[in-house]
Amino acid sequence: MAATAAAAGSSVAKKDRNQSLLLGRYEIGKLLGHGTFAKVYHARNVKTGDSVAIKVLDKEKILKGGLVAHIKREVAILRRVRHPNIVQLFEVMATKSKIYFVMEYVRGGELFNKVAKGRLREDVARKYFQQLISAVAFCHARGVYHRDLKPENLLLDENGNLKVSDFGLSAVSDQIRQDGLFHTFCGTPAYVAPEVLARKGYDAAKVDIWSCGVILFVLMAGYLPFNDRNVMAMYKKIYKGEFRCPRWFSPELIKLLTRLLDTNPDTRITIPEIMENRWFKKGFKHIKFYFEDDKLCKVEDQEQDDDTESCSDQSAMSESDAEVETRRRVASLPRPASLNAFDLISFSPGFDLSGLFEEGGEGARFVSGAPVSKIISKLEEIAKLVSFTVRKKDCRVSLEGSREGEKGPLTIAAEIFELTPSLVVVEVKKKGGDRGEYEEFCQRELKPGLENLMQEESESAAAAAAELPVDVSHLPSDTE
């Protein structure tokens, strides 16, 4: 009786706890900051134990303020710009009255707090500037322009790495008018470019570069290059590009700042030119990375084991060594996850097991009798033909192109599921990049390659059947 009561009490307590969790998953902690339309809280995912930051927006205020399109644009931008030096958006959730942005929790606070204590050492300032330019270059390649870069919008993680945040004033390339320029006045006065103040239209990429120049000056000097208690007087200084570098600035740094804070946007330094600058290049390394299951994976951090090596790595081996290596990898491959009836139902309504390659939207699947190892090898072979990077984990293969576009490089994920002991389903999905490029790759490379695999398997099975000894002892002879 007591045990039953205790169990009932535990069940009620668990139910109460679940009800106190945000959407059954997040335990809300302290308030981190707030603005006119949103509050940001520290929270913990009770299932994983991970810390996150949750931005809570009031729907009524957003509707009254006419900010629905603004919020949608911010979400679209954050999903487009996933980079190690940009605060990551994990998911967006909503109730009747609130909208929740679940974001990466950056523990180190604002870079502004660090600068407020005094100027930084040159090597430290350079590291932050390098990370800032890497993030800005990544955004610009995807047609995203921040337009409000300043130390208050730059956060630091626990390892001292910079993270760009607050894309609320960001713009995307489809907002450009017919003259090829943006016309919205935005940004923080001390960091805003002279052409924005002129209100005649501006190139948002050049505006971000100007702001990066002001940030670099602040990191190195500990104060603003253009400053005055009177805002109009400060604007005049910005218009004229009047600033003086302190004596501890090196000639290389002064030269770079002069190009960054050039009042003429046409002659202002570009991102590729910044990356080739001598002062900037000291100790700079391009970060190679990818995201898997919302986790950032840096290529340089990966161990060169069977799961991460590219298909081209075996080219250095002798033929016999490669065969031994292939057999070893095949033996270590785990069995694919099995599909149940619900999985099959969740596939498209027209799913037909007799079809080789069923396409729909940004995904496709095919059925094969080939061994998992052969399917993975075929995917590697296809990737090698078009110089794609291959990453493998168990029965999942990721193919990533090298050509950058507004939506990033084409990234395709293939996962193998067991249908029966002798049949598997391979599901192919576009994870990133341009849809047109994905469809072209599927038609030109992926589909023909997988069809060839099926043909090879059929021919192999037919050849094996032909070589089997035929037992004729049970057949009647001619004399009978």
Please provide a brief summary of the model.
The chain has about 475 residues and is α+β, with helices and mostly antiparallel strands.
Descriptive report:
This protein has helices at 2-20, 59-64, 68-80, 111-115, 122-141, 194-197, 204-221, 231-240, 251-260, 271-275, 278-281, 319-332, 341-346, 372-385, 435-467; strands spanning 26-34, 38-45, 51-58, 89-94, 98-104, 144-145, 154-156, 162-164, 171-172, 289-292, 295-298, 337-338, 358-360, 363-368, 389-393, 396-400, 411-420, 423-432. With 480 residues, the chain is of the alpha+beta class. It has three domains: 19-104, Phosphorylase Kinase, domain 1; 111-287, Transferase(Phosphotransferase), domain 1 (Orthogonal Bundle), CATH 1.10.510.10; 304-461, Kinase associated domain 1, KA1 (TATA-Binding Protein, 2-Layer Sandwich), CATH 3.30.310. The longest helix has 33 residues, at 435-467. It is globular, with a radius of gyration of 29 Å.
Percent strand: 15-25%
Range of helix content: 25-40%
Per DSSP E runs of 2 or more residues, the count of β-strands stands at 18
- CATH homolog superfamily of the largest domain: Transferase(Phosphotransferase) domain 1
Q: What's the CATH first level of the largest domain?
A: Mainly Alpha
Distance between the amino and carboxyl termini: 83 Å
Main β sheet profile: 7 strands, mixed
Q: CATH fold name of the largest domain, please? A: Transferase(Phosphotransferase), domain 1
State the helix count.
Answer: 15
Helix/strand class: alpha+beta
Radius of gyration: 29 Å
- Name the poorly predicted regions: 301-331, 348-360
